[in-house]
Amino acid sequence: MKYYNNRTNRGRFQSQTALKIRVFMVLLVLFGLYVLFSEAIKQVTSYISFTHSNGIVQAKVSSTAIVDSKDRIESAIYETWGRDKYSQARAIAKCESGLRESAINWATHDVGLFQINMSTWEAKIKEKFDMSVSDLLRADNNIMVAYWIWDRGNKVEGDGAGSWGPWVVWGSKCFLSELDK
Asked: Is the pTM for the entire model greater than 0.90?
């Protein structure tokens, strides 16, 4: 008959349980990230085609993905700011993110097309629009929030006069090179 040390078995059971909990937590985080970015992944993958030949998988990205996205973004900016302010708004977005809706600056906590600073605006955006950081990675949401920030930039919300003051690129004038493009 074999003798089992209950103390050793209990310790082994506890470490296995702790490992299972850690694995579960990692899976939970990964699932959360999947849910968070699934819409963006769907948009991107709709422009990717895969071919399989001789055991090699090749992926090709359609050039229309870049054009469609850029045109869609520029149209949305035009519709939001109108003809008079379109050039400035587009130039600001181009300097801030390169017109990439998924741009994130982890160092400064800036998110999306207009690089909205979450340290400054997160609570106000949550209150006004009920949006999270992941919502701001969609161009239409980012443009809507950027317009709201711009509109209240002159201290009078709703007058449509606005100010680019909240954006660093406005003060640094780096957007000027993008105005004529």
From this structure: no
